[in-house]
């Protein structure tokens, strides 16, 4: 496979072999996983909020730097829609700046306040957005690239629920900075399609949950393997905080609360707490917790090393090019 075929503005921007991002996975994206992604030729992001103690994050960054032999890697910074919740992010941002990571993946709220801080430290910023209007705002704020995420994606695909194919076509037409496409992506032919639409790369999340390097219980990974991608549920729609998660007992309970008309966040707090998700990852009890789960789970058919997943993905992308005569 000629790697020059897959050389894009994204690979140039980040100095990576393949135009593939593996997004920050809260509670799961640690140094071991991110280093495996980077060493396989893609770009990974340590999830900062997995390590609320700034010195823990610093240690994780340094561990990743050692495991990658100095190759560039990223950190995910989730910006809450609730300003008070971002207080915990401030010391983590300081660590990211001090450690001079290569790139940050921002998500959630506007990155406008973070961009200047990152630029001062020589750190690139890629913002994840659920719709073109937010991507345009991020471009205006000075980010280096945007990830447009479609409704098929696990986690928070936005309340407008725009499909991935629509995002992939409109993004490159409306934005001048590189566009990366995410949402339901787990097969290499989707990279070929994204490039054909003018995107510069793709983002995977759910597909990578069965990586051997992901620090979760094997029973959790086996549950992903047994899924077909259709066994997800979108909850918290009444709060316009759409969350695509694994269809389990906890998600059903949240859906029932919404159906009852409850608008009291306290009624949901225990069910949606991060503590429940962490317990599920640690114990393998997937009946509890809001467990991000997108439709690309249909491609996650085996627990394998990251490098095996990435290599096969790129082989599928190359085969896709052959099908269209390139």
TrEMBL record:
UniProt cross-references to CDD domains, sorted A to Z: NPD_like (cd04730)
- Keyword terms, alphabetized: Flavoprotein, FMN, Monooxygenase, Oxidoreductase
Q: InterPro entries recorded for this chain?
A: Aldolase_TIM, NMO
Domain of life, per UniProt, equals Bacteria
Hydrolase is among the record's keywords = no
Looking up Pfam families in the UniProt record yields: NMO
Question: Which Gene Ontology MF annotations are present?
Answer: monooxygenase activity
Q: Where are the transmembrane segments?
A: none
Name under which the protein is recorded: Nitronate monooxygenase
Cite the source lineage: Bacteria, Pseudomonadati, Pseudomonadota, Alphaproteobacteria, Rhodospirillales
């Amino acid at each position: 496979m000629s790697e020059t075929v897959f050389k894009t503005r994204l690979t140039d921007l980040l100095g990576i072999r393949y135009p593939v991002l593996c997004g920050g996975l809260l509670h799961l994206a640690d140094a071991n996983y991110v280093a495996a992604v980077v060493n396989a030729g893609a770009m990974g992001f340590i999830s900062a909020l997995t390590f609320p103690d700034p010195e823990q994050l610093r240690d994780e960054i340094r561990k990743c730097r050692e495991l990658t032999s100095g190759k560039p890697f990223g950190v995910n910074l989730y910006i809450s829609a609730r300003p008070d919740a971002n207080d915990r992010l401030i010391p983590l941002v300081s660590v990211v700046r001090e450690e001079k990571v290569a790139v940050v993946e921002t998500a959630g709220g506007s990155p406008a306040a973070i961009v200047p801080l990152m630029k001062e430290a020589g750190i690139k910023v890629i913002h994840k957005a659920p719709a073109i209007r937010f991507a345009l705002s991020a471009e205006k704020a000075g980010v280096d690239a945007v990830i447009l995420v479609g409704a098929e994606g696990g986690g928070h695909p936005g309340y407008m629920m725009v499909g991935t194919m629509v995002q992939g076509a409109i993004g490159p037409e409306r934005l001048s900075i590189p566009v990366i496409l995410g949402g339901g992506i787990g097969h290499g032919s989707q990279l070929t399609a994204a490039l054909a639409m003018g995107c510069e790369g793709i983002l995977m999340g759910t597909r990578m949950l069965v990586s051997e390097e992901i620090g979760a219980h094997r029973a959790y990974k086996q549950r992903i393997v047994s899924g077909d991608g259709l066994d997800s549920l979108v909850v918290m729609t009444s709060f316009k905080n759409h969350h695509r998660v694994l269809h389990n007992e906890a998600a059903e309970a949240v859906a029932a609360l919404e159906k009852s008309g409850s608008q009291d966040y306290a009624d949901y707090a225990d069910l949606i707490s991060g503590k429940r998700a962490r317990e599920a990852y640690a114990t393998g009890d997937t009946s509890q917790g809001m467990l991000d789960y997108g439709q690309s789970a249909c491609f996650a058919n085996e627990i394998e090393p990251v490098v095996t997943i990435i290599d096969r993905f790129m082989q599928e992308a190359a085969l896709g090019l052959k099908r269209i005569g390139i």
